[in-house]
Amino acid sequence: MADHPSTSSPLSRVPAVEKVLQALGEHMASGPLPRPLVTEEVREELAAIRAGIRQGEEAGDFDRIMSRIRARLDSVARSRIQPVINGTGVLIHTNLGRSPLGPGVAQAVHTAAAGYCNLEFNLDTGERGRRGGYVDRALALLCRAEAAAVVNNCAAALILILRHLAKGERNEVVLSRGELVEIGGGFRVPEILETSGAVLREVGTTNRTSLADYERAIGPRTALLLKVHRSNFYMEGFVDSPSTEELAGLAKKQGLPLVEDLGSGAMLPTESLCAIPHEPMAAEVLAKGVDLVCISGDKLLGGPQAGIIAGRAALVAGLKAEPLFRALRCGKLILAALQETADEYLRGGHGDAASPLLTNMLAASVDGDLLPRAKRLAKRLKGLGLDVCVGRGTARCGGGTMPKAEIPSVTIDLSVAGWSVGELARRLRESHPPVIGYAAEDALRIDLRTVLPEQDDLLAECLAALASGADS
Ligand SMILES: *Cc1c(COP(=O)(O)O)cnc(C)c1O
């Protein structure tokens, strides 16, 4: 390893940043990456190449270095947030942004984003108004609650509730050991409790908790009874826990609030949409005597990322008066999206462009909607060199909700001679827009329940482009 490389040393053959930028010319201009970022990426890649050479690696010629840099820039460009076609069959796919927003909601976001709005301005008096006044009212109506409030997500909602209700001498939260759950994405109930400053008082066992267990745990330090919906797993067999009504009765007798973290946030009876079990709704648990419930905005509700709290007016007012509420409040884009989502439910449309997109996706029928689309797609792709079949699949709710719900669905099953399923999947991820499917036996499957009907043309174009790549 020479400290002063001669002109022919491998290190000295690594091109200068400027030379690479010039050679990139068109590649850079046509891509989405801003020039300072490109420059920085090039600098880092050249440094990595030099470090490799010092370790004895071959850098290759200029063309090889350029292709390495182009691959890196393509990868960085792909990491930008961008639309993808979800062919996984997982409706609330956390990695793919959970619930998609329908056209009405997207338009509401666009309108709110594109200019000023009366976010905190009272148009009657011309004075300062309440942020989210309308959306809180609409959500309260939807949950049949006295009042509602909105924060960033359901985790934030639970932390705010615990912060408000469990403090000082009364900071114990009574919770069944069967509900000490991890929801995913780092949401672990015991850790959320700890973060909020509350002290966990576990009762019962993993599979069985009785009302007497709760009763015994209640003392002068008890702040509230908490119930957490087991969103993402099921327990079967020798299991028991008191009903919500029984817990509510106990809470009332003891003068304690009963809080339920419901998570998934179904607003319509899920069993009425498709052949899946009933998921408890906020309105139902409140009717059973729960004082406060919190749900996610972007799970079964099908709205934007948000945490919705509904329940007793005095409790909700207390939450809104917490300094923490200010730190967790939502911006105008989220509130605009949530307002439109709530209105879509309240208007009560069904199965059209004016009803919540997620409910339409759940309700799409196999024979009436999905199969005809699949057949049209398969016909269109005939003779292009792809092996395309229409298959039957199982879609899922996802997002850590309703793990048992198997939703019958229809798939496009793809294979290409000479390509592994992994290779096919990789190439589809590189298409514009990226298409994400799932592997099954010898085919890559694209579940049409999660592909929006208006994306069918785009999907066909992506697959046709893939076919032309397969020919070459
Ligand atoms: C998903 C879920 C959460 C977390 O919701 P986020 O909106 O993702 O913060 C909390 N509790 C339950 C029961 C859930 O299912």
Strands, helices and their partners?
Blueprint: H1 17-30, H2 35-54, H3 62-78, E1 85-86, H4 103-113, E2 121-122, E3 127-128, H5 133-142, E4 147-151, H6 154-165, E5 172-176, E6 182-184, E7 187-188, H7 189-196, E8 199-203, H8 211-217, E9 222-228, H9 244-254, E10 258-263, H10 270-273, H11 282-287, E11 292-296, E12 307-311, H12 313-320, H13 323-328, H14 332-347, H15 357-363, H16 366-380, E13 387-395, E14 407-415, H17 421-429, E15 435-436, E16 438-440, E17 443-447, H18 456-471
Parallel strand pairs: 1-15, 5-8, 5-9, 9-10, 10-11
Antiparallel strand pairs: 2-3, 4-12, 6-7, 11-12, 13-14, 14-17, 16-17
The structure holds pyridoxal-5'-phosphate.
Describe the structure.
With 472 residues, this protein is an alpha/beta fold. The chain is 42% helix and 16% strand. The protein is built from 18 helices and 17 strands. The protein has a seven-stranded mixed sheet with strand order 4-12-11-10-9-5-8, with helices on both faces. It has a four-stranded antiparallel sheet with strand order 13-14-17-16. Helix 2 (35-54) crosses helix 3 (62-78) and helix 4 (103-113) packs antiparallel against helix 14 (332-347). It starts with 16 loop residues before the first helix and ends with a helix. The site of pyridoxal-5'-phosphate has 14 residues, from helix 6 and strand 10.
List keywords for this structure.
four-stranded antiparallel sheet, 42% helix, binds pyridoxal-5'-phosphate, globular, 18 helices
